[in-house]
Design goal:
- The structure is a single chain.
- By secondary structure, the chain is of the alpha+beta class.
- The chain folds into 4 domains: 27-108 and 405-480, conserved putative lor/sdh protein from methanococcus maripaludis s2 fold, CATH 2.40.420.20; 110-117 and 326-346 and 363-397, Efflux pump adaptor protein, beta barrel domain (Elongation Factor Tu (Ef-tu), domain 3), CATH 2.40.30.170; 118-150 and 296-325, OB fold (Dihydrolipoamide Acetyltransferase, E2P) (Beta Barrel); 157-288, Helix Hairpins (Orthogonal Bundle).
- 35% of the residues lie in helices and 28% in strands.
- The chain is built from 6 helices and 21 strands.
- The chain has helices at residues 27-46, 52-68, 153-178, 182-222, 227-263, 267-292, and strands at residues 91-93, 95-97, 99-115, 118-122, 130-133, 140-141, 146-150, 295-297, 302-307, 320-326, 330-337, 349-354, 361-369, 379-385, 397-413, 418-419, 425-430, 436-446, 451-456, 463-465, 478-480.
- The strands form 5 sheets. Strands 3-11-14-13-12-15 form a 6-stranded antiparallel beta barrel. Strands 4-10-9-6 form a 4-stranded antiparallel beta sheet, with no helix packed on it. Strands 5-7-8 form a 3-stranded antiparallel beta sheet, with no helix packed on it.
- Helix 1 (27-46) runs antiparallel to helix 2 (52-68), helix 3 runs antiparallel to helix 6 and helix 4 (182-222) runs antiparallel to helix 5.
- The protein is rod-shaped and about 185 Å long.
- The chain starts with 26 loop residues before the first helix and ends with a strand.
- Residues 1-88 have low confidence and may be disordered.
Length: 483
């Protein structure tokens, strides 16, 4: 009866010591180890004739491997074949064929989520207390929606005063435009007549005194009356003349007043009153605008990113009360080396994942590539539009994967390749005599379906070992089983 060979994972002298590289891809190592664990369990089940001590040794070895190396998810194999078990000891493996498939060339970058359009919200009314806040951070608001209310009692009192000034100015303008009333004209005509009568009376008094002076002049010359008496008459004559002048002045004033009332107010007087009315109305509009500004509304629809205000705070022209992300539109900004910019075009799809948060896997679109390149880093900014997602928030760190080309390439399951310290890979090709041949390969892209591109070392149609690879060496005999 044949005996199974003890699986120890001895290194092949041709390839040197087998090490696990910390760089990608790591899936082939994990897949190979998992296959080794499955094969070891199967061999232990089949080794009925092994000595008890050898069985215990194998069990301890398997137990140690399971502690040191956690199981990885078994890679999917598109094509697996089954061959008859040859005579002699062999290892049980699964195999897959080397295939010609489409390989997507990708470019990876990391970046930070930003708002496409961040809109600050200010209060136009300064020096007023915040009375109410109606939205919180994260709230969705519509354009024109009320977000905060400011104290308005002082402005309301000022509005009442301004409206009274408007009423007074309107009455003055209306009075001037209407002109003098009939009663006022009648009084003005009567004043003119009275002034003319006063002039006539003053003139009559003057004439009387003048005659008395003239008649008493001879008497003074003849010494019939005293000189003092004559001087009194001269003084009365002077007073009468002054009265005539005053009466004439009053008559001219009365005539001018009558003429002014008859013509109506002067145009410049009306213009001045109208200007005062406009000023009063402007004050009302100003206070109403200030009152309207006590209602802080959303300038655009979007999501409230930050709320920087508290109830009781005084507003100022420089104080930002809120920040709104317009329509909730976010973008991620990637920095890409200038040597790779030619591979990126606006509209290109970008697969985006969160670096430290599961459940975020979305597809964005390249919106803009900045025309300038940073002189120090030699990188340019690539802006990618993000779809609407509750998990995405400004400031998050994301990783992007951009497919820059699709070409035809040779691929195998990632579990079939053992990474080597020099960056190459190692696979085992199935031979016609149910043995395997170790082959060094050059690896390319690590694909998303647990396959890896092979740039050189393999040909389409060849069959390679998948599970159990970490324990094989060149020339080993194998048994192929279905997965």
């Amino acid at each position: 009866m044949s005996q199974d060979r003890n699986i120890t994972g001895q290194p092949d002298p041709e390839f040197g010591a087998m090490e696990v590289s910390s760089s990608e891809p790591s899936a082939p190592i994990k897949g190979g180890l998992e296959s080794a664990l499955s094969k070891s369990a199967l061999n232990k089940h089949q080794g009925k004739t092994l000595l008890l001590g050898i069985g215990i040794g194998i069990s301890l070895a398997v137990f140690g491997i399971q502690i040191l190396v956690p199981k990885a998810e078994e890679p999917a194999t598109a094509q697996e074949t089954t061959q008859t078990e040859p005579s002699g000891s062999s290892q049980t493996v699964t195999t897959a064929r080397v295939e010609q498939t489409v390989v997507e060339r990708t470019l990876e970058a990391t970046g930070t989520v930003q708002a496409q359009e961040l809109i600050p919200v200010f209060s136009e009314a300064t020096g007023l207390k915040i009375a109410r806040l109606l939205v919180d951070e994260g709230s969705m608001v519509q354009q024109g929606q009320l977000m905060a209310v400011l104290e308005s009692s002082v402005l309301e009192a000022q509005l009442v005063q301004a409206q009274a000034s408007v009423t007074q100015a309107e009455a003055r303008v209306a009075e001037l435009r209407a002109g003098a009333r009939s009663e006022e004209l009648a009084r003005a005509r009567e004043a003119v007549r009275s002034a003319e009568a006063g002039v006539a009376q003053a003139q009559s008094n003057y004439d009387l005194i003048a005659k008395r002076v003239e008649s008493n002049q001879k008497l003074v010359d003849e010494g019939a009356i005293a000189r003092d008496r004559f001087d009194e008459l001269l003084n009365q004559k002077q007073v009468a003349l002054t009265n005539i002048q005053q009466a004439q002045a009053s008559r001219e004033d009365a005539k001018a007043r009558l003429q002014e009332l008859s013509r109506g107010p002067r145009p410049e007087v009306i213009s001045q009153a109208e200007a005062q009315l406009s000023q009063a109305k402007g004050q009302v509009q100003l206070i109403r605008a200030q009152l309207n500004n006590t209602r802080v509304v959303a300038p655009r629809s979007g999501q409230v990113l930050r709320r920087n205000a508290s109830v009781g705070n005084l507003t100022s022209s420089s104080q930002e009360l809120f920040q709104i992300v317009e329509n909730g539109r976010l973008e991620v900004q990637f920095r890409v080396p200038e040597t790779q910019l030619s591979q990126i075009q606006p509209g290109q799809a970008v697969e985006i994942m969160a670096e430290n948060q599961s459940g975020i896997n979305v597809v964005g679109r390249v919106r803009e590539i900045e025309p300038s390149v940073n002189e120090d880093s030699r990188q340019a900014m690539v802006r990618v539009d993000l779809p609407s997602s509750e998990g995405l928030k400004p400031g998050m760190f994301l990783r992007g994967r951009i497919v820059v080309a699709s070409t035809s390439g040779i691929t195998v399951p990632s579990g079939a390749v053992l990474p080597q310290p020099d960056g190459s890979g190692r696979v085992f090709i199935l031979q016609g005599d149910n043995t395997v041949q170790a082959q060094r390969v050059e690896m390319g892209e690590l694909l998303g379906d647990n396959r890896v591109e092979i740039l050189s070392g393999l040909q389409v149609g060849q069959e390679v070992a998948v599970k159990g690879v970490p324990y094989l060496k060149d020339g080993d005999r194998i048994t192929v089983r279905n997965n």
